[in-house]
Amino acid sequence: MLPIYSKKTRLKLVIIVIALLIGAASVLYSNFLVSKLSDREKQLIGLYARGLQFTIDTKSDENMVFIYSEIIEANKTIPVILTDAQLNVQSSRNIPFSKNISEKRKQELLRRELEIMKEQHSPIMVDYGGNTKSYIFYKDSAVLSQLRYYPYVQLTVIACFSLMAYFAFSYSRKAEQNRVWVGLAKETAHQLGTPLSSLMAWYEYLKASPTFQNEPIVEELGKDVRRLEIITERFSNIGSVPALKDENILRVTENAISYLRNRVSKKVDFTIKADFPVDTPAKVNIPLFEWVIENICKNAIDAMEGKGSIDVRLSFAGKNKSNVAIDIKDTGKGIPKSKLKDVFLPGYTTKKRGWGLGLALAKRIIENYHQGKLYVKWSELGKGTMFRVMLNR
């Protein structure tokens, strides 16, 4: 299989370069045609002027009829205005007017067209002799005008197709990533099922055994077994639409922190505080949301190398307090500004061991399943990092 996604940057660059080459070739060729057609129209207007001059000089009625019918009247495309030496309009051709237009309005439109023609082309002078002159003004025909804009239309079409190709590539890549995520999660849940069933049986056996009555280790084992059940449920939920319910967000967050507090270094100090009533609800799926809190906190503990403090603060956010914000701040080594977005990419990790999936999975859970947001609110090298989770109330 071709390594398409591993070389996505190069492929995107190739697409852009090809689009630019096609666009440049189109513009150059179209400009070449426009130049040729413009020269041709200038020659036609010159012929029109010479024909007009000839009709004045000739003495033959037959020649005058030929000039009018074959040269002057044959111009059906190029807008032309004939003026006297003082630039007063004498006649015009190929300038459309409405049927019932007044003479005054017609003269206004002709003067407006005359100004446009002055800007486009220099007039051609017709010398009648005896200090009598006329000027022929003209502008590009409709065909030439359309041809001038044609390359820009073509560039727009090329840009649209390039964007479609880019988004199709990105969508297919994300779709494949989603399939990998779902497949990995389902397989993990399946693999956990067998040893979990065995552990549950052993837990029930130890709990019923007189030898281990009132042993704290048995109770802790029971907690871990229940935790494994929750983890298995989490992996099973990946790929399906989880049920979101109004839950006491402070209590749910406290439960997730409480579980971690007893299973990490004692040199890590946890604090949690809420700036709103203790019974404030938010729409969450408890197993998945607790997974997010755990992943963020575990990354914070790794960043602090097992020593420091993690402060969790809950508050209202958004217009009309429509959201709940959970800020998780650590005293770790911080994240460089250039890496603030990379920390959420699958596979990104600064640790020697690990897959770099924790924060990527947390972001997916919050943004795809909870319609919320997860981002780095603040980070400073040597001082720490603050992640913010935004949820709907």
TrEMBL record:
InterPro entries on file: HATPase_C_sf, HATPase_dom, His_kinase_dom, Sig_transdc_His_kin-like_C
Which biological process terms from the Gene Ontology are attached to this UniProt entry? Answer: phosphorelay signal transduction system
Specify the protein name.
Answer: histidine kinase
Q: Does the keyword Secreted apply?
A: no
Question: Which PROSITE patterns is this protein grouped with?
Answer: HIS_KIN
Top-rank EC class of the record's enzyme = transferase
Question: Can you provide one Gene Ontology molecular function annotated for this UniProt record?
Answer: protein histidine kinase activity
Q: Report TM segments.
A: 12-32, 149-169
Q: Which intervals hold domain Histidine kinase?
A: 187-393
* Taxonomic placement: Bacteria, Pseudomonadati, Bacteroidota, Cytophagia, Cytophagales
Q: Gene3D superfamilies annotated for this entry?
A: Histidine kinase-like ATPase, C-terminal domain (3.30.565.10)
Its EC number is 2.7.13.3
What keyword terms does UniProt attach to this protein?
ATP-binding, Kinase, Membrane, Nucleotide-binding, Phosphoprotein, Transferase, Transmembrane, Transmembrane helix, Two-component regulatory system
Q: Which reaction(s) does the protein catalyse, per the Swiss-Prot or TrEMBL entry? A: ATP + protein L-histidine = ADP + protein N-phospho-L-histidine
